[in-house]
Specification:
6 strands, 3-stranded mixed β-sheet, about 150 residues, about 20% strand, elongated, 5 helices, alpha+beta
Length: about 150
């Protein structure tokens, strides 16, 4: 590690701990030449997960894409952005935590919908209508019936 002050390449670790989210290791270091202290963060490098779409196309997993869809589904609902961020974090952990390099988009969508149903049922139906590409009102009614059966 190179000191940001003097450029010396030798230092010692003064303190080491995990970040609040356990996503990185924070290390306080001290340069052995000038005594300047600085902080470094070490992150685990993940191989990108590929999402296989219904039509066979492949694209990288995108948490932003999921968050944007959730924001649209939760428009004018009393769902906080923080709870949506947490939902996306849970989905990302489930998807990226699997040992597979590729995952079908249906599994990603089901992960989102299962968590969204517990968070806000109206937003769930909105999301499901786009995700499952409802063609008519009967599909809405079927989804509502399923939701009511799970609730009862």
């Amino acid at each position: 590690m190179r000191c940001p002050s003097c450029g010396h390449e030798e230092d010692k670790v003064v303190d080491s701990r995990a970040t609040k989210e356990n996503s990185a290791v924070r290390r306080r270091r001290e340069c052995l030449k000038c005594g300047q202290r600085f902080t470094t963060y070490e992150y685990i490098e993940h191989t990108p997960v590929i999402v296989v779409k219904k039509d066979g196309r492949r694209e990288h997993f995108s948490r932003e894409k999921i968050l944007n869809g959730l924001l649209r589904a939760c428009e004018k609902r009393s769902v906080s952005r923080e709870s949506l961020e947490e939902l996306v974090n849970e989905v990302e952990k489930a998807v990226c935590g699997s040992v597979r390099d590729e995952i079908p988009s249906s599994e990603v969508g089901n992960e989102v919908m299962n968590r969204l149903a517990a968070l806000d049922q109206v937003a769930y139906v909105r999301f499901a209508s786009v995700y499952r590409d409802f063609k008519d009102v009967t599909q809405f009614l079927d989804e509502l019936r399923n939701l009511l059966e799970k609730k009862a």
